[in-house]
Amino acid sequence: MMRLNKRELVIFGIGFGILVFFFGIGLGFLLGPTTETHLLPKQVSSIFKYSGMGITVISMIVGGFFVEKMEKDIKALLLIFGIILLLINILIMSIPGT
Amino acid sequence: MFGMKNKDLIMFGVIIGIGLIFLGAIINNVFPSSSSDMIGYKVQAFIKMIGFGFLTSSMVVGGIIIEEVDKNQRTLLLIFGLIILLIYTIGSVQLDWNVSSGMMSGDIATEEDAAYEYRPTGYGTPGFEFILVIAAMICVFISKKMMNRLR
Questions:
Q1: Is A32–B42 a contact, with Cβ atoms under 8 angstroms apart?
Q2: For labelling, which of A56, A62, B102, B105 has a CA lying 20 to 30 Å from the CA of B23?
Q3: Looking at the complex, does the CB of residue B128 fall below 8 Å from at least one CB of chain A?
Q4: In angstroms, what is the C-alpha Rg of chain B?
């Protein structure tokens, strides 16, 4: 397996996480509507959605804080948007049934 | 990274992403769906979401790694990618396809009818556009403030 340094790992994490997040939303549509008796689409979709979002937010905050070989303004953007995304996700998770 | 020129890789991702979004729209129109046959709707929604994934991912990663383009242009790509991600994070709640027995009333007799009637389209659900507009305005405001501070 190719060896990735910290910067490449963070960039890979962001790209892969966003892809997995949208894949999760798409899977929710593909598996059909969630009803009170058939919860599988929601369960499968939320595994991918929240895994993807988790990987993205972790990579953005870690990239914004701990990676040295990145420009200053990009690091600031990553950190600010990472925190905003984290807060929004905490708010979304607090909605009953999500 | 990955043995391919970064700029080409990002360009490829953006092309594939936008292409998939429009391919989804074409599939939605060529294979119309009804309450008894929703396969067209399901497939087009999946393809569209994969397209959005490619597009957003390419924009954000491109905003960080492309070195051949102008710095302002690159930052703009990153900001717009992050705004799309932010909007879809907020919108993901509206894009959940949930059907409950409380939705069945009047003309909507069966679960399939309710599923078809309340299918999320991304634009058709009442209130979704409003959330998008508010989210976009907040994001633009924040990024403008940030850009001014960074200069």
A1: yes
A2: A56
A3: no
A4: 19
Would you say A55 and A13 are in contact if contact means Cβ atoms under 8 Å apart? yes
- What is the pTM assigned to this prediction? 0.80
Residue B103: pLDDT above 70? yes
pLDDT at B127 over 60: no
pLDDT value at residue B50: 92
Q: How far apart are CA B84 and CA B59, in angstroms?
A: 9
Contact assessment for residue B88 and residue A22, using Cβ atoms and an 8 Å cutoff: yes
C-beta atoms surrounding A34 within 10 Å: 22
Q: Output phi, psi for A34, to 5 deg.
A: -90, 125
CB contact under 8 A, B95 and A27: no
pLDDT above 80 (res B88): yes
Question: Measured at the alpha carbon of residue B61, what is the angle toward residues A65 and A61, in degrees to the nearest 5?
Answer: 20
Spatial CA neighbour of B64 closest among A1, A87, A96, A81: A81
* pLDDT at position B124 over 60: no
Note whether B54 and B12 are within 8 A (CB). no
The sign of the dihedral angle between the CA atoms of B38, B43, B44, B50 is positive
Chosen from B67, B96, B108, B150 to mutate, greatest number of chain A CBs within 10 A: B96
Tell if the CB–CB gap between B50 and A49 is shorter than 8 Å: no
Residue of chain B nearest A50, judged by CA positions: B89
